[in-house]
Design goal:
Number of strands: 17
Shape: elongated
Number of domains: 3
Radius of gyration: 29 Å
Distance between the termini: 69 Å
Largest sheet: 10 strands, mixed
Structural class: alpha+beta
Helix content: 25-40%
Length: about 475
Amino acid sequence: MKKYTTVIGLEVHAELKTNSKAFCSCSTEFGGEPNTHVCPVCLGMPGALPVLNKQVVEFAIRAGLALNCDIQKFNKFDRKNYFYPDLSKNYQISQFDQPICLGGHIDIEVEGGKKRIGVTRIHMEEDAGKLNHSGATISTSDSSAVDYNRAGVPLIEIVSEPDMRSSEEARAYLEQLKAILEYTDVCDCKMQEGSLRCDANISVMPEGAAEFGTRAEIKNLNSFRALVRAIEYEVERQIDLVESGGHVVQETRTWDDAQGMTLSMRSKEEAHDYRYFPEPDLVPVELDDAWIERVKNELPELPAQRQQRLMTENGLPAYDAGLIVATKAMADYFDAACKNAGDDKAVANWLLGDVSAYLNNEGIEIDAFPIKPENLGEMVALIKGGVLSSKLAKKVFAEMLKADKSPKVLVKELGLEQVSDEGAIAAIVDEVLAENPQSIADFKAGKDRAIGFLVGQVMKKSRGKANPGMVNKLLVEKMQ
């Protein structure tokens, strides 16, 4: 069997966080009753004219600058003509030959190094409606109902260069892109609600070949897991097809998550089949330098910059910093918790340990975490100050999950103050040593486990309140 190179390009659709649609005043709110957020404009009724939402242009500029694109001062809208039930006008207002952003790139981490993935273009367009299928997937359904609430919701389509060579590179690219869109606040990136969706263009070619193979496009992947699984299945399908003497056809396919396979939807249309022509009801968009410069100056700290700050100013390892800045909400929580903690690394350890475990078990994001960041920081400060042991901090943490109380209050209510009085601890140490002469002999014989056993006995007698460092110090001194 030959060796093959995988070639992947992604088209990411990000719905913009505007209150109203791209060309009318209908609400963009998710979850309304079907066909209630509609009007003659977004339904494409005869004589209804679109009016461009200025915020759409603002968000497109912001996203383009964050992705290192060249903003096109002159750009225009076009009609993309095709028939599909979720497109009531039978055309989509989009951008074709003169989009708002060209060029750009995203840097991703792969196998311990950086790789630059090119961004071909970003263009503004309106979303289509949504088909609600009677079956589990479009391929297994007898009928579909159409909800046009999403029709006309503004989005940007971000088209990458075919620079990715594995499912993991594609995942890393999408994760980084998602973070940038969240940080710039142009999209809420709720993939489960469809506000961030991805189409993957996939092909294979013999290793060392000069030309890419024929590509298939996998539509509407709405989770990182689906993206990885769909790419890996499609690569294997195409290689098996080529190896058995067949050939890959250019087509659009859908991902069936239940079966874990891609299924053919339709032959892939080429650009000219859409019969693009300039949108006659909208004037071109002309931007001036002042507008672009203002948006540039208002850009927030982006994920890569924030990761660098957490490494240099907060002293975190690159890996920990990368995990924390992966979502803006987690990074914001970390910064808030560090304000009164006095130990930024300990805050990171709690976030990546107990906090993340709780979030995973409950299936929630950090936004819904019941412990306020200032309370987590205060608990870390109590540990650092010797008031609370690391072991007893687990009890305080568990109580904070149940009640909105500060750790100081809980420590007092539960009687968990750590004992750091040397005299009080020495008395317990003397008692434990008197009860365990064999452990003293083992310690003097060089058996390291003996000291651990004795520390455990002291902690047990003190009900976990004794300062572990002081316990260890006094045991060694007395046995020597």
